[in-house]
Amino acid sequence: MKTSWGNPVHVIRFCRTLLIVLAVAVGTVAAEDLQTLRKKAEAGDVVAQYNLGVRYANGEGVAADDVAAVKWYRKAAEQGYTGAQSNLGVMYGNGRGVAKDVAEAVKWWRKAAEQGIAVAQTNLGLMYQKGRGVPLDHAEAVKWYRKAAEQGNNFAQNSLGFMYANGKGIPEDDAEAVKWYRKAAEQGDAIAQNNLGVMYDKGSVSYNAPTLSGATQVCAARVPDGFLQSLEQLS
To answer: Is 0.70 topped by the overall pTM?
Structure first.
C-alpha cells in the first residue's frame, strides 16, 4: 500500500494510527512486566515481592491497594529484606492497609535500622524522641538520628541539629547544631534552613554569612506527611 506523504490529511491519519499502535504496545509490555513480576513474587523472589508492594502502594501500573502492598511487603520483610521491613513499618505507623500499630511499626523499623537502613533509623529515632511505641529516650533518639545523619539523611541531620541546639539526650552544643543544620540545609531541607537562620539570629555562628529573615525560634523536628519511607522499585 502506498502512502501519499504529500497529502497532509494522510500524514495526520498515519501518525494517529502509529500513536495508537505504540500506545497499545506499551500497555501490553507493562501488563507483561506486571505479570512476570507477580509470578516471580509468588515464587518467593524477595526483590519482586518488594517491588510489587511498591507498585501497589504507589498505584504504579495497578490500582493503588494498601492491603495488597502490606501483603507483599510482609512476605519480603519476613525473608529479611530491609527495604520491605522499613516500608512495612511505615504502613503500620500510618495505618495504611492495616490497623495502625506504632509498636509494630517500631518492631519493623528496628529490624531495618539495625541493618543500616537510614530511613528506618530516622523513624526509630523519632519514636524515641516522641515516646511513641517505645519509652521516651532522647539519648536513644540521638543514637539513631546520628547513624542516619552520618549516611546523609537530611531529616536525621536536621533532627540531630535540633537535639544539639536544645540539649536533648546530649549536652547542648550550638556549634554541632549549626554543623548538622547546615548539612541538611544544603540538601534543600526548608526546616533546617530556617533553623540555621535562627542560629545566625541568636549569634551562634561567629563568621559572616547571609541570615534568613523571619526566624523566631528553633523549629522542632518534624515528619513530612507521615513517616519517612522508601518507595522506589529496585532492579
So the answer is: yes
